[in-house]
């Protein structure tokens, strides 16, 4: 029995080590491929400049950073209340047999390829927004945020339900015994004790939205210009290009410094994801 345990332990260590090695290999690869670009261009100029003109040796990704941040924030703001209340409804309100079916459907939706969401955005969402708001094009930040929100909702719902399931039943029973209503128990007891899982769900969804590529390329409009932040009411109707969209759009024909700049773009995105994960860990430690 001890020998079997040691074998299993060794397998776990090997697999864990492989994951860590893969992570560092990706970082090393991005850094090596980005070095030729950073030897010729300053990091600050690369991050703060809005001019992306490879033919003129001008590489600035500020527009793409802003496009990525705006679409991600809007998507998360849309997804948080819908995901949270849907998770509560599935876990607490629906009968158990129907709840299992609903959760299964959510998990199936999570497996739908991103290109299907992008196609849905082009065929359904964009034309409707264009018609409702009398726009020249429905391919904009709002369409992108809606599609991204649809894509990250299953992740938020599943992780939130997982957190609610881990709440001690005795806490819920005690709340009801003290005369609390179902709504009071859900919001004051269950959500409070599941807050770590909910925070994790939000940050994981945020990372998913940051890294999404195909669907975003299809519905964001692919505009190189820096989005005008004022007036606010017009912000969501502008077309943008994201960091991932920029990489995929130009990777097929990029060479030399241009290709290295795309790897540098990927490195910046990787840093963003790292910052979000560190932020998540710090927040979870404080609560």
| Whole-number count of domains | 1
* Total DSSP E strands: 2
Please give the CATH architecture.
Orthogonal Bundle
Strand order of the largest sheet: 1-2
Major sheet details: 2 strands, antiparallel
User: Would you identify the CATH H-level superfamily?
Assistant: MetI-like
Stretches where pLDDT falls below 50 for ≥5 residues?
none
Structural Rg: 22 Å
- SS summary, helix count: 13
N-to-C order of helices and strands: HHEEHHHHHHHHHHH
Top-tier CATH class: Mainly Alpha
Q: How would you describe this protein?
A:
The protein is an all-alpha fold and 287 residues long. The protein has a single domain (64-286), classed as Orthogonal Bundle (MetI-like fold). It is 78% helix and 1% strand. A two-stranded antiparallel ribbon has the order 1-2. The chain is globular and about 70 Å long. The model has no long low-confidence stretch (mean pLDDT 88).
